[in-house]
Protein 1
Amino acid sequence: MSETTEAPDVLAWTCPLPHRDRSRVVMGHGGGGALSAELVREVFAPAYGGPALSAMGDSAAVELGGARLAFSTDSFVVRPLFFPGGSIGDLAVNGTVNDLAMSGARPAYLSCGFILEEGVETEVVRRVAEALGAAARAAGVEVATGDTKVVEAGHGDGVFINTSGIGLIPRGVDLRPQRVVPGDVVIVSGPIGVHGVAIMSVREGLEFGVEIESDCAALAGLVEAMLAVTEDLHVLRDPTRGGLAAALNEIASASGAGVVVQERSVPVPAPVANACAVLGLDPMYVANEGKLVAFVPREHADAVLAAMRAHPLGREAAVIGEAVDSHPGMVVARTGLGGTRVVDLPLGEQLPRIC
């Protein structure tokens, strides 16, 4: 090491396998994996109760005045605020819109809460707000209400955002993991791992020979195209924190069905595969922000896949596996060499703060 080279800041590193300390919150509790599920199961669910919460979907399906509504909330703490392919403003809209869409809802209105750190430049806040507004218009939703708070310098990270959303669920649509049955076909809407690697590359100054842009996008239009084929989709999930592996495990656990994934069928772009090889990551666990995974009855799978591929956000959709009656609640992958490996729920998070 030369005299001018700065030593790595080891205190800023985050262990991908965090210590399981039940007495204190660790970074892994926010990663969408086993620690997140444990926190929800042991702390929040007992405190809140209620049948709407018990379904534990991406959004809650509730009835109000004779209408079925999807209701969701999400918070965004990504760093950096701007990255190739998007910003925290885009994420704040698309993340909540997608949670509503995974219930089959037509997203309609959002609330938006900004938590600003004292000292952040007003122009930065303006750029984030403009990106958020543009994303909302592109997604066909209206920001109907909001809130702003400021915390002391050193007690935030520039800009945090919370968005909540509501949308109308069409009559006859019933998307939930409990509907999954053996024989269902598993379809992913496109290449995985793009968003997480894009964030890591810009945050850590890594170069992989080609710029990797986030796949951040609103998926409501793609879901509408799928439902136009048949309302009898069983479940949809957007594999954000914890990646495809976490989404599949959540569905398997809630449905009681086993899931078999053909590893070679999972679309992983070459730059993402190369980056994961360098970083020692499994693309199945890397976050996405513009992809969905669907469990579709076998008799509708071909038609749904065709409709997805006809949509701009589903051109590279692929069948990656099926639900089975063996190994209930477990996800396994068939490797290219003919072996089988368990794809478990991640403990924490491979790439911290990607949304």
Note: The chain has two domains: 58-172, 177-342.
Protein 2
Amino acid sequence: MGVLVVDDHPVFREGFAALLRSIDEVEVLGTASTGQEALRKVAELRPAVVVMDVAMPELDGIEATRRLATSHPEVGVVVLTMSEEDSTIFDAVRAGARGYLLKGAEPDEVVRAVTTVAAGGVVFGAVLAGRIAEFFAHPRAEAASPFPQLSPREHEILDLVAGGLSNGQIAARLFLSQKTVRNHVSAVLTKLQAADRAEAIIRARDAGLGR
């Protein structure tokens, strides 16, 4: 079973890859540090499973998962992230992820998720599975996003930009590097077709963000 590990944090990426290499039935075909690199390596290496981080430069994990679901539907994606936010969980599910685990998951839970998804199954971990079941048992209306083309992370960053925070302040608030924040801001400007940061702020505030 071939696996590709995608995460922009080198220590976590290599540590997770080392964990998977200790499993007899798993072959780590490679690693990637961005969503764009992940797409290229999937086309090249043809893994059975991609373990995908969410917040990454160039292309976030949710959008990369969505593109993989279209271009390589045979590849199972397990999203592995720090985020427990409902919006991130359901965005991952809608994008086509077949697994969703938190980075604090026990090694045996991670291994079970990867092998289950490789076999065509779906796994979301005990805690998240309960929340998903509750969501569908008691659906609640979701407010329409004023900028549906943005990923959850990009929307969050636009909200902070509209609130007057600098890249450095946003990085500190979200525990990201300033380089990652700059990449996200650049992606936001591109997706909004905004000429500059000032125009993006005006449009975001008009939509109710930054308050």
Note: The first strand starts at residue 2 and ends at 6.
